[in-house]
Amino acid sequence: MHFLIIDDSAADARVLKAMLGQACPEGFEVSFASSGAEALRLLQNHEYDCLFLDYRLEDSADWSVLRRIRELQMDVPIIAISGYGNEQVAVEGLKLGAQDYLVKDALTAETVHRALHNAIEKVTLAKNLLAQQKELRDFAHMAAHDLQAPLRRITQLSEFLQEDLEGSLNEKSTMHLEMIATNATRLQSLVKNLIDYARHGSSETPLREVSLKQVVAAALQNLEVVIKEANAQVTVGEMPSIMGDEVMLNLLFQNLISNAIKFRDKRVPEIRISAIHESSQWTIEIADNGIGIAEKDVDTIFAPFKRLHSQREFEGSGIGLATCRKIVDQHQGKIWAKSKLGEGTTLYVSFPDTVATS
Fold it and tell me: What residues of the chain score a pLDDT lower than 50?
């Protein structure tokens, strides 16, 4: 392993090197920089497994070198070191991108080894996560792009059918044909937003005033077949209007209501959707009488690909609630759950305050 010690005190640098010798008996290589300028030059031309950065250098103010390294988007692990056991200094260094913080007077082989291991592990995990996110975005972009052509074709064919059969269909058949066209159009909007998300990490649609009453109604219409098959009873209270992306909010509520129906036992599914206004925000509650979630698992259900049941028990990809959390985050909101096994689940979604109830 190759380390860079950035410290304008040669004595302190030698002490740290000695500690590294005890912490890394398998061997290592170390380079030194006595100034911020020298450190930045070395970083431009060499790769290091970890940096040990002194808080105060003669040519640099406080954490200026740390700031500059992160501004250059270098993802090397950094352990900040200071001669001051100052909590504020430590917190500032960690906020600016250091993975750990050590005080010179308290250095031991054990603390250096622990800090080194933690710093490298944190950066490695972050790199792996970024790679996985990119892979997922690339897949979403490819899948969404491939859906565009057949959706356009479905829309065209439904229009042709409406023209060809105009006047010859009964009221029910006409309604079904209109629903095909409406849902195909909605899917096209959803696919477009998925492509935007895959390309940019968020929807590119500007937020505007959206009636959640209409959003929930559209979601229920999309789930009409599922609701009838489960004989589910869904009650909806007064809903507010918020600033949002209507297509993404439709997907959010469709996922949440679908989950409430899917994770049920032998009882008739009962879903209650209501809104509460407090502390300058709207909180939407989606409560069900389903199978519930063990308390130890409640905080994990929004993680990507997190499944609490086998595919045989309940079908699904494990990304539905993770998608919901992402949509809520884009609306500057929060999502959480309360549940007990066998007693149903209540999902809460909070949004910033807006206009009137609709």
Answer: 200, 305-318, 355-358
The DSSP H or E segment spanning 77 is: none
| Rounded distance between C-alpha atoms, residue 245 and residue 78, angstroms | 39
In DSSP terms, 241 is beta-bridged to 211
Determine the residue type at 15: V
Pairing between β-strand 345-352 and β-strand 281-288 as defined by DSSP bridges: antiparallel
Rounded CA-CA distance 197/202 in Å is: 4
Residue type, 19: M
Q: Identity (one letter) of the amino acid at 188?
A: Q
Other C-beta atoms lying within 10 Å of the C-beta of residue 26: 5
Phi, psi of 67 (to 5 degrees): -60, -45
Residue 133, helix vs strand vs coil: helix
Q: Which residues pair with 103 in a beta bridge?
A: 82
Give the three-class secondary structure for 235: strand
N- to C-terminal Cα distance for the chain? 62
Count of positions (residues) in the chain: 358
Q: What is the pTM of this model?
A: 0.49
Pairing of strands 281-288, 270-278: antiparallel
Gap between the Cα atoms of 42 and 249, Å rounded: 49
Q: Rounded distance, CA 81 to CA 130, Å?
A: 27
Listed residue (326, 307, 276) closest to 137, CA to CA: 326
The tokens of 167 are what? 């006047």
Residue with tokens 């005890």: 22
Q: Give pLDDT tens digits for 279-318.
A: 889 999 999 998 888 777 777 677 654 444 433 443 444 4
Helices and strands: H and E segment counts in the chain: 10, 12
CB 20 within 8 A of CB 3: yes
CA 217 and chain centroid, separation: 26
